[in-house]
């Protein structure tokens, strides 16, 4: 609320306001150079406004000198602090005639700008003037913060002109901070869009530096402090909880050693996050097995990581991938699919070898399936003769046995009739008549004589019967023997044995033939799956390139001194290495290898290997193509894993960061830059546009100081509108020049605790002066020297 030259209604407005509506007390002071809005916050702010107006002698209908107002700002108020620390000053509708930057002013342009730069901001009423000054009009200046407004009090023509400020809190320091970074915190028409992904706090349960809890704001956060305060460990903890690793092995090793040395097993690291408005906590335990799944993963660069990357002649494409979550997902899918090719290829080669062995057995010209069937067919014509021969043999055997048994019966003891028991002794004579043993024995003897004569007659008759058939039996036997001899056999049992063996073998061969057919079907199906995996890998690889090109286009919009260029398939080192491994023993020459790489058909490469192992490749080895020679060599030497890798490995995309040059001068490629400019290029692409939080340790390392201010600082100032920064730094350009919203001064409190706040806090400013400038004396000495210069 800014009434003209009066500030008496604050309590009434607060009483009428809703609970969630912040009321800022203020006044619109009339000066000889136009109106100035003076605004504060809260009840204490209202008292400050009253005191400020009283000290200036502001009265309704009166006018004061602008120079008097500006002179009062650094003076001490009754609070013990300067008025400047309590109020925000805005030049009202400065573009209108009679106001500070209006037309036909009696002041020179330089004097006008000198006065206006002592204010926190200016309000511009006319749209055409606002557009002109926004695009570099004569009265625009880097430090001129413009707000849109209107001075009309006519309800008929009043219009709403929206100027939005992004505030971390409703306070004078927060408002001053928003005005200090208008490129990120001042918006028109629509409010600033908050960062979608934010780390709100980091908490460590214990360790070398004791339990710690750091709060972060949504935008730019700086971590400062003395050496060995554990600043880099905080970055390590964030990497740990988000399960992120540096691709540079030495840097990652340092991270792991530092965590092991500073955080004992069982230490709990917790990070509170907000993703698209949803809050959650990500927790991980040192030494634990559980790996959390956070809603997002920030872009993190460890200490010295970016500097080490600047030593390389070709920048790592990973620097671009961190800005493209889709590439990370595509690479994971590519690795997952590629990991299945090797086992599947090995299984198919084993099946192919098994199929080849079965085929060899089945196709044997002597006892294979066709030969066995042919022999069995030929021998089957002899089977009836063999069956008759078998019958003759059986008949002969029966006849011989019958003769033998008849002879044995004839020459054996007489049979028939009972054998009487012995006559009892000491028998009473009067009872002997009851034992007619002699009479009974006579009867038995008579029977035996008659039976013996009958047996002789029986045997004679039986033998005569057999003798009568002997001639005809001999004729039948002679005929069968002649037929067997014609077929090349001595006896029928030989034929039947061979037939039985052939039929048993045929059954086995037919089973093998069925098995071979099933394995062949499995191989065919496996090759379909293999083809799908390889083609999917190719599609994913092409999609990665597309995403990287889109990411390069996106980051180029926010890079100031350089631009990124993605060279598809620019790095063939891994493919060449695999081909070199697989070609040994093939006598392929280097030109052939280059052509092989360029013409490589990965699906045909694997199919040829499988068909070769299956024995289905008919061409002579001398006629194999170069890639077929490589496949044949891989199968022979058992290099199937390398062959599978070759089928899913493609020349990698390469990244070049080229320095922008004046019109007519060719951009300078990364390899031709000085190390300092390489470092700057690495930092620029690392900070490039993304909606993910960026966390980095000492981004100023190895970058020319001027470049830090002219490149990295503007990037941080603008990009914080849509993403969060958490930066460890020893450079005042990064922390102060970027006007970070929040500073965590680690181990800087009286008891070694972390002190937090913003740069409008005297304590934070003093700590920044200590740790970024070397202290007040060092800063003043340098300032004195620069002033004299």
Secondary-structure topology with pairs:
Blueprint: E1 2-4, H1 10-16, E2 26-31, E3 34-39, H2 42-56, H3 66-72, E4 88-91, H4 109-116, E5 121-124, H5 127-134, E6 146-148, E7 163-165, H6 172-180, H7 182-185, E8 186-188, E9 197-204, E10 212-215, E11 220-224, H8 231-241, H9 249-262, E12 268-275, E13 278-285, E14 299-301, H10 305-310, H11 318-321, H12 325-362, H13 369-380, H14 383-411, H15 437-487, H16 492-556, E15 562-571, H17 573-583, H18 590-599, H19 602-614, H20 626-637, H21 640-648, E16 652-659, H22 675-686, E17 694-697, H23 705-719, E18 725-728, H24 732-737, E19 742-745, E20 755-757, H25 762-773, H26 776-788
Parallel strand pairs: 1-2, 4-5, 5-6, 11-18, 11-19, 14-17, 17-18
Antiparallel strand pairs: 2-3, 3-4, 7-8, 9-10, 9-12, 12-13, 15-16, 19-20
Q: Structural class, judged by helices and strands? A: alpha/beta
CA-atom Rg in angstroms: 52 Å
Q: Note the overall shape.
A: elongated
Strand order of the largest sheet: 1-2-3-4-5-6
Strand content: 5-15%
Q: How would you state the average pLDDT, rounded?
A: 84
Number of strands: 20
Distance between the termini: 46 Å
Helix content class? 40-55%
Uncertain spans, ≥5 residues at pLDDT below 50?
none
* Major sheet details: 6 strands, mixed
In DSSP terms, counting alpha (H) and pi (I) runs of 4 or more, how many helices? 26
